[in-house]
Amino acid sequence: MADTTGPGSTPGASGEHENAKARGGGRGKGLHRRRFLGGTIGLGLAAVGAAGTAFTVLGGGGGKASAATGTLPVPDLLEGTASDGTTTFTLEARTGTSEVVSGVTSSTMGYNQAFLGPTMKWTSGDTVLLNITNSLGADTTVHFHGAHVPAASDGGPQLAFADGTTWAPTFEVKDEAKTLWYHPHALGTTAEQAVHGLAGMIIVEDDTDTSAALPGDYGVDDIPVILQCLASDTAGDIKYDLTGYLGNGLVYPVLCNGANVDDTTLTFAATKTRNRFRLLNASPSDIITVQRSDGGTMTQIASDQGYLAEPAEVTTVRLVAGARAEVVMDLTDDVTLQAVITTGWVRGGSGTYDFLTVTAGGSDTPDDLPGTLRTIDRYDTSDFTARTITLGQSGTTMLIDGKAGTSMSAMEMISTTLGSKEIWTVKNGTQLEHSFHLHDVPFQLISVNGDDPSGVQLGWYDTYEVVGGGSIEIAMEFTDFADDTYMYMLHCHLLQHEDEGMMASLMVTEG
Q1: What is the distance between the alpha carbons of residues 469 and 306, in angstroms, rounded to a whole number?
Q2: Is residue 199 exposed (0-12), middle (13-18) or buried (19+ Cβ within 10 Å)?
Q3: In Å, what is the CA distance from 127 to each residue of 124, 141, 154, 197, 487?
Q4: CB 481 within 8 Å of CB 149
Q5: Which of 68, 200, 291, 320 could serve as 435's disulfide partner, Cβ 3.0–4.6 Å?
Q6: For the chain, what is the mean pLDDT?
Q7: Are 93 and 52 in contact (CB under 8 A)?
């Protein structure tokens, strides 16, 4: 077996790097009426190659997450207050109790409620103000994942704010239509706070013809789907770090919009023929592949960073931690969606779960989807500035370019200038799964493990999978925002890896 300890580490290091033993943990709740489907990603590049085409590499209010009641809970839509050209949204990060393991009470966190948070709708071109109060009893931040905003409003670890205080960033929404999300990003506590429930969706709307032609009635034909696979003991104590994940007697509950679907398939009664599903993998580390139980197709219309160039017929949508995608389905018969969970870290979930049955109820006949959703001009990178970013490890410490980003002063800093066009080779020097996330600007995939991108890989991303021993080439242009004080981040979105040091800073200056 290949050495999985990585450069500079000690062979035989304990914890995460004894993968073979650790992955043997059981699921507790079983496979939810479906056969187990093994994953390949945790095994590295060689296993992915051997797997052939087995996987397509893609990148409510109150107080309860609660056991599933049978009906898909749709997160509340947070109403903003418009005044003097600015729309203000008010959030409070708070603690509470919820059921994550069915029938068991867990200590949790949420925005404006006990677990998860409401959905925000932003409109491209508008100015927004967010009044976010911290009532957690510990420092926190709120990062607007995937949003193109000034560094001083990005919510990175430099912007942590204390319990009892309110952070109030304001900015113009420069993003086009897409699905974003928000979650904590403080040093060393991101995994703990996010797995306990601090996460919510952001929908950016625009006035393009494509947006007008697609379902957009929130909760009616435009449906948020927040998927999580967590770790808990049977007493309901949610785990978030290596010590917790290596404990005995763990279960790995699968949640959809906060409802446990281990033993229950939620239902959504469609009233329209065409329905749009915004998929978010808000898990700390596990990979989630969404598919239809009947093997049928879905039409993918968007990746992380908005619309694809054209609709794509897909049978699976594979989401690493932090990734999003949008699909539409024209339904004349009921369809059940499945989540295939693949362990992305030292231990985690595995198996296939029928998480949502959509019952067909529309009597309308929708127009054909637009053949072109947007224009995506592919970069000519011949004159781009080249960099190599190396993801590594030393024992249980995670590294970027040999440095552990466990403090702002210790982490690697990458400096660039406004207007710079760059191509990065992101190399995985470990045999572990990583989910690479870049703040500030979207990127295009130039190559994935040496292969040219195709299909949905030709869209825009901010989060993408880097398998063990693999690499991706990505290209981006730094536009709009420069700052000589506040930095953006680049990091692994396996939250435990982020907390263990796999994070670097990105300073964009005027030059």
Answers
A1: 29
A2: buried
A3: 9, 21, 15, 27, 22
A4: yes
A5: 320
A6: 89
A7: no
Q: Is 433 helix (H, G, I), strand (E, B) or coil?
A: coil
Average pLDDT rounded to a whole number, residues 405-409: 97
pLDDT at 221 over 90: yes
DSSP 3-state of 15: helix
Chain position carrying tokens 């085409």: 53
The rounded distance, in Å, linking the Cα atoms of 159 and 140 is 9
- What Cα–Cα distance (Å) separates residue 129 from each residue in 85, 150, 200, 481? 10, 13, 17, 18
* pLDDT over threshold 90, residue 32: no
- Helix, strand, coil tally for the chain in percent (to 5): 10, 40, 50
Could you say which DSSP state residue 22 is in?
H
Give tens-digit pLDDT for 230-288: 999 999 999 999 999 999 999 999 999 999 999 999 999 999 999 999 999 999 999 99
pLDDT one-digit tens code per residue, 434-447:
999 999 999 999 99
User: Strand 413-417's sheet: what is its strand order?
Assistant: 413-417, 503-509, 488-492, 434-438, 463-466
Q: Residue 69's pLDDT band (boundaries 50, 70, 90)?
A: low
Say what the pTM is.
0.89
Residue 51 is predicted with a pLDDT of 31
d(CA 314, CA 56): 9
- CA 70: distance to chain centroid? 25
Cα four-point dihedral sign 349, 195, 488, 376: positive
CA contacts within 13 A on the Cβ side of 209: 7
> Rounded to the nearest 5°, which phi and psi values hold at 151?
-60, -35
- Dihedral of alpha carbons 207, 209, 211, 217, sign: positive
Total length of the chain: 511
Report residue 318's pLDDT band, with 50, 70 and 90 as the boundaries.
very high
Residue 416 and residue 10: Cα distance in Å, rounded? 34
Q: What is the 3-state secondary structure (H, E, C) of 299-342?
A: EEEEECCEEEEEEEEECEEEECCCCEEEEEEECCCCEEEEEEEE
d(CA 96, CA 91): 15
Residue that has been written with the tokens 């948020």 in this structure: 224
| 259 strand-pairing partners | 256
pLDDT tens column, 490-508: 999 999 999 999 999 999 9
Q: How far is the first Cα of the chain from the last one, in angstroms, to the nearest whole number?
A: 48
The letter for the amino acid at 301 is I
